[in-house]
Amino acid sequence: MTGLASARAPGGPSRRRRLDSKRTLVYTLLVVGAALFAMPLIIMLTTSFKSYTEINSYPPTIVPNTWLPQNYANAWNYQNTDFPRWTLNTLFIIVLTLPGVMISASLCAYGFARLHFPGRDVWFVLVLASIMLPPQVTLIPLYIFFLKLGWLDTFWPLIIPAWFGGGALNIFLIRQFFLQIPIELDEAATIDGAGHLTIWWRIYLPLSKPVLVTVALLTTLAIWNDFFGPLIYLTSPKNYTLALGINMFQGLFTTRTDYIMAISTLMVLPMIVLFVFAQRYIVQGFVSSGLKG
Amino acid sequence: MATSRPAARRFDRAFWRRTIRGYLFISPVVLGLIIWTFGPMVASLYFSLTDYKIVSPPVFTGLDNFSDLFTHDRLFIQSLWVTVRYTVLFVVLVQLVSLPLAMLLTQKVRGISVFRTLFYLPVVVPVVATALLWRYLMNKDYGPIDAALKFFGLPAVNWLGSPDMALVSLVIISVWGAALFTIIYVAALQHIPEQLHEAARIDGANAWQQFRFVTIPLLTPAIFFCLVTSVILSFQFFIPAFVMTGGGPANSTYVYNLNLYDKAFKWLEMGYASAMAWVLFIIIFIVTLVIFRTQRLWVHNDGGVRG
Lengths: 293, 307
What we know:
The structure holds 2 protein chains of 2 kinds. Chain A has helices at 2-8, 12-47, 52-55, 70-76, 83-114, 120-132, 136-149, 156-159, 168-179, 184-191, 196-207, 209-225, 228-233, 242-252, 257-291. By secondary structure, chain A is mainly α. Classes of the chains: A mainly alpha, B mainly alpha.
């Protein structure tokens, strides 16, 4: 094909020049675009090291005149805040939610992918349809339900629902993966006397590491970043998650941009590290969720 | 399959074993849907027909909440209008940004994967952090954006402080954080077989014609998905308005969900807020349905190349 194309364009050198100028244009656009898109995060990072007076002086500096790493310690231990505890709370919710998501979503996915029973497809459509449902429609009854259970201002409203299927999208992602596993494996296992629970646990889960990693990463991201759930259900500051705590901090000390940026950096950084190292899995998760069309 | 079996054997013991086993496997999500979705939906529909302030049991008032919404509640109309404007701006802008960006990010040049990572990064930034960051960036006194504008001799903009600009500013922030759409477009572009462009080139199609008659038609499933998703996301919009502007100035960013949140959790008007939730649900449902109905007219689903 390439041979044909270059045969049609006898002016080889001029074609190459055109390619070169195209490449220059692409790089220019990429660099300008990246500067625009990455700049906010870079400014967040540099501002977190600046002094209070430097931030409030004009013109603003790009690189801090004096680097103040102690901003981080000061922000972390600021009066009337408890960032260590809020971080632990967030991690606690993640640790208690993840197994529920993994186990229940993959069990359901196995049922939808590999078992035949009446009503299966109806339930699967209902699961998918629930993705489109605006959460506001269930918000108030759930709030009242948790109120009656005495679960307000505890982590349970944020943890327990995940044990019931682990999210429609996760079921969908795992099911798609299970469908690609050769069914001959089940048949061989069945002949050896394995039941479906054994097949799910011993064959499907070990073979599905990529999608399980994706689901675990997306769940971790979602909990770490969740603001609305904690806002509704957690009221006393000792129970705050990081997202809520950071918001309270900015409400109390609006002008301390240095500390707000330091804490924001601390909150963003783990997710960026996660993304850089596991980009393949995370992107795959987003893309597969778009594939259902 | 199962239908080929004799009818008499359809409800034998094996059938029931199969059924029970199947439902045991999917029982988490079946219970989950009943407890956390369908039950609450019914309850919220009932609450929407009541006067319910938590402290005392709900009092049935028929359609009063709904008629109040549309006839007496100017804030409701206003917040709905703000959300509609936000939705239109966001949906249009996010496609205009993410599609060209995705085309740029699928160019075959060295180092492109590093650029991809850079452009994708905002997708993992917590919305609260995004909001705090941009509130500083857009500050009119010492914010870096206005400083940069002044440096280039341009007039400073009161991004968050003026009723004309605030909503647009929130749209810009959301577009920055919406790398999800770029990711989906990049994947869709990578799915287009190289041979199709090759063939078009041999037939004498120039770059624009290739884009118009090869790329765009094959992208329509992805565009469709992004359209639906961005509309639904826009109607869910809440956090940046809650954190950055609190709905101001002059209610110019008082979006629907901020209004709903205040009604429910500030004034404890649970019945009224439930009615608002159902109005929102019906609006989203109708808009999505309309988009789905137009699907036949412009989305190419036949080629086997999916979004």
